[in-house]
Design a protein that fits this description.
This protein is an alpha+beta fold. Helices cover about 35% and strands about 25% of the residues. It has a single domain, classed as Dynein light chain 2a, cytoplasmic (Beta-Lactamase). It has a five-stranded antiparallel β-sheet with strand order 2-1-5-4-3, sandwiched between helices. Strand 1 and strand 2 form a beta hairpin.
Length: about 130
């Protein structure tokens, strides 16, 4: 799978997406796409540490899969950003960071629900999603 192409497709799906990252299951960053003009709130070290913690939490969720099914996504909402984590195959995780502002000034921008739907459709290979 071409992660650069995947991340660009996700970034192109909604202007409210700030940042997309693919990591391995340990949270080590393999691929990054960052929206031009958007400044990160966290340093590179803080981002790496945060992703490692999120990957660890995802592994803990996988332990429950035999009883409740496989995870589809997880949301961590903060005052300034919302981060949505998706499993990406058997060996990777996808992180999508979006702004947390509740009011959209552009009617074409999606909120959390729309972005989750777009990403799930893209990951599933839905041919109707451009």
């Amino acid at each position: 799978m071409d992660f650069n192409q995947l991340l660009q497709r996700i970034m192109d799906s909604d202007p409210n997406i700030r940042h997309t990252v693919v990591t391995d299951l340990e949270g080590n960053i393999t691929t990054v796409n960052h929206r031009e003009g958007v400044t990160n709130y966290l340093s590179e070290e803080e981002t790496a540490s945060s992703l490692k913690r999120a990957a660890s939490a995802w592994k803990a969720r996988k332990e429950l899969a035999p009883k409740i099914g496989n995870g589809i996504y997880a949301v961590a909402a903060f005052e300034k950003i919302t981060r949505i984590t998706f499993p990406l195959g058997q060996n990777n995780l996808l992180y999508v960071s979006m702004g947390s502002n509740k009011v959209r000034t552009d009617s074409h921008q999606g909120g959390q629900k729309e972005i989750i739907e777009h990403v799930i459709n893209i990951l599933s290979g839905d041919p109707t999603i451009e």
